[in-house]
Each structure stands twice: as structure tokens, then as C-alpha cells.
Amino acid sequence: MLAKPEVFNRRLFLQPSDNYFDRRAVLNPCIIKNNEDYHILYRAVAQDFKSTIGYLRARYQAGNPVVIDRLSKPLMEPENDFEKEGVEDPRLVWFEGEYHLFYTAWDGYHARLGYASGGSVDSMENRRLIGPLFETGEALKIIRENSKLGDYVKRWSEDPADMFLWEKDATILPERVNNKIVMIHRLRPDIQVAYLDSLEQLDDRGFWEDYLRHMDQYRMMLRKEPWEESHIGMGPVPIKTDAGWLMIYHGVTNRPRLTYRAGAALFDLNDPQRLIGKTKEPLFEPVEDWEKSGDVNNVVFPEGLVVHDGILDIFYGGADTVIGVISVRLDQLLDYLQSV
Q1: How confident is the model at residue 1 (pLDDT cuts 50, 70, 90)?
Q2: CB neighbours of 141 closer than 8 A, spacing ≥ 6?
Q3: HSE of 204 in the Cβ direction (CA atoms, 13 Å)?
Q4: Which end of the chain has fewer CB atoms within 10 angstroms, the N or the C?
Q5: What is the DSSP-derived secondary structure letter of residue 327?
């Protein structure tokens, strides 16, 4: 087995501004490239803790991302009751001629998947909830029919019966696999995959009820390492490489204290559930003061990726307060994941 590649050039990328909507915190950015520009959507937090989506445009100069312009008002803010307390943690993907945005819709009690789409980054329309929209008590009745889902029964039973399933960390892959739309998401504690014939199934209740009943067939990655003991979740939209689909993800432990760390995993191009290899130890973890102290201490939360001159730059939230970037050689990371 090869040695785990070293990360390098850890640096602060973005801090809160004087604008009202991101004065308290900026975190968890997604990134999509258009020509030489990188469009970055990030979670912006106001002093009252309500989240909106901020926007900036960046370009690479001398090997580092540099902010070219930054919007002084939210790109997206709550419009519906289901997101009245925040639109959070965006993931943006270009798929079949359109942008598709997945985000966490937070109403103060329920965390559910929000979705919008459009022809440009600043024209997202048809905002709505998607995914398995079941209250926990109802979902437990469904999955108890399957004896292979006992770990989910145990975990979901910790939540109130009237709380909707805690659903986060979702996207679709940027292209179909075996003529299916591949949706990756996370119902705690592990990462799952769903195969769709069309995007209309995103909010098809019958589809999701059958999916929950047979969810043991759709597990994508399970927790294995001590630093993942609480739960894991996808980070940025996975990228396609010659070696497979590369996913940067987060793992969470509650002992001895709550800590978010980042790992990497590689999946087969033609079978996204076939894991080729994953990091046994974290790829990186909180070490800097701005990763260890903030609105939520001891957090690195990866959500954006850029490949530039053979270097993989990972953009992440630090302590739920600032945005950092850290680098790793892409070839070394892929070689390592194929060797473990």
C-alpha cells in the first residue's frame, strides 16, 4: 500500500464581510467552472444565525484562487416556509444543459433537501423540497419491514417521531451512468445512492417509499474508521477521473469532542456503489486556530473542488466561520486510493 499523500498549502480563502447577510460567517462553498471563471456559491450567515447563499467569482493567478468580485447581497435567500430559517450548504452541478442546485432547507426544526434549477447560476427557479419526505415515525414503520436495516432503525429512533428524516449532503453526478441519473445523498449515518430514470422522481413519494423499504440495496459507503463513528456524508460533487469517481467526504466523531474531518474515496465509473478504495486515516483535519475555534469548533467541512495544473484544491468550511483551501496532488491521491 502506498503512503497517504501529503496535503499542502493550507490557507484562508474567505472571511466574513461587513455586509449584513454574511457578517457572522462564511462556509461550505460549492464551485463550478465556466471558461476561466470559477463561480463559487457559499453559505452566508448573518448575525441572527439565518443562512442565505452568497456568491463570488474567482480566477487562478500564480496557482492560487483569487476573488475577482463578490456579491454584496445574497444570491439566494429564504422564500418558502420550509426554508424560513436558512438555505444552506449548496451543491451545484451542470447536467444535461442546465444547472441543478441541491441545498439544505432549514425551517428551524426540519432539515430537508431543497432543489432548484436554471440556465444560469443567478436564475434558479422552481425551488422545492425533494427526496424521501417522510416523518421519522412513518419512515421507521417502512424500514422495520426489512431486517437488514436495523442500524437505521436504531439511529432514526433517536429523533422525534414528528421530525422529517434528517436529509443532507445531496447531489447528482454530472452525467448518467448506465442511462440512469445517479443521486448521492445521506440519511444518517451512512451515504446512499439512488438511481433515477428522470428528475421528476426526485419528488415522487411512491418512488421514495419503495426506496426506503429496500435501502439496504442502495448503500454507497459505510462508516468503518474511528474518525467516522458518528456519521459520514458527501462533500463536493464527485469528479470523474480516469481511475473512477473521486469523492471527498466528511467524517464525524463525538468522542472525545465533536470533530469533523475530511477523507477521500474512489468509486467505479460504471458502478458507483463499487468502492475501489478510501482513506483509512483522515486526508486532513482541524489544526489551525480558524478550523478549531468558531461558531462550531473543530470542523473542516469540504464542499468545493478545483483541479488546476494537476493539483486538487479542496475548498472547505473552517469551524463553520471561514472558508479555507488545501491542496493535494491529484495523481498521488488517485494512486493511493487504488492501492488501499
Answers
A1: confident
A2: none
A3: 13
A4: N
A5: E
